[in-house]
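To: structure subgroup
Subject: Chain for Friday's discussion

All,

I'm putting the inputs and outputs inline so they're searchable in the archive.
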Amino acid sequence: MSGAAGTPELIVYLCACAPFVPMAAVACVFIERVLTPRNVAVLRVLQAAALFELVTPLGDDTTTLAIVVLGVVLPLTCYKGRREERALVSALVVTAVAVSEMLSISFWKIATDGAAAASIEASWEHYPSHVASSLLGAVVLGGVLCAFFRQLPDVLACLTERRWALPAFLVVQSVALITLSLAIMFDASGPAPLFWACSGLCALSLVADVEVFRAAGRLRVRQEDLRRARLYEEYVESIAARTRGEVDAMAEVAMLRHDLRSHVATLRALLASGEADEAQRYACEIAREYADGAKAAGGGIARE
């Protein structure tokens, strides 16, 4: 096939596929912000190969293959982190791409009065609309991924129990959305019969995902508040225990001072009455009593 006015096939294909590069770049930037690469050099080579495959006529489904490589294969194999985290990020990218593609196709269908979305000839014939719809998809993809990115740290922190539940749900959802978008995209010509219903389903799915992430964020905040409350409770309990110990020590000192005053008064009375021997005997008994008490206290401390 050749383009209008005898334009070479390769030029037509490059011009038709080049507007999809911004969408792929947005997906790559999001993944880079969330995950850590294992080997940057190898990753860059694989990303470049996927982008090259995206804009060259190497097969019938080059765009789909590029999205699978960039959004699924690379996040799962070329980045560090827990498997469930990488699966979650991959599912988010695929879901966001499916939603942005649906809105992009919606704009394309309206702008071209129902031209086939997967046709190189139609893309070349309506090239301004093709570029505008592709850029719209990139903008929508960036907005969706930005909304996910804000809540993603809290969501990742909540992936403890049932850690595969959310990634599995998003994977199933992304597969369903891609199936719907492909059914519309490869419709030969004219509007797809269920196009508006599918677009509404995509919008509802996106709203549900955002609400799930916001709920996870609120849950994370609540967990953090509970953790702080437990720390404050432990701190207050430690202060209360220390205070009780100090109060008990002060009470013991007060009793000791009272006993000492009583003993001193007794010794004075004995000395004043001239009973020196009795005062000496009393003083020895007091000294022996305190010595025994000190030994008992020392033994208790040693046993502890």
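Points worth raising on Friday:
The chain has ten helices and no strands.
The chain has two domains: 4-229, 247-303.

D.
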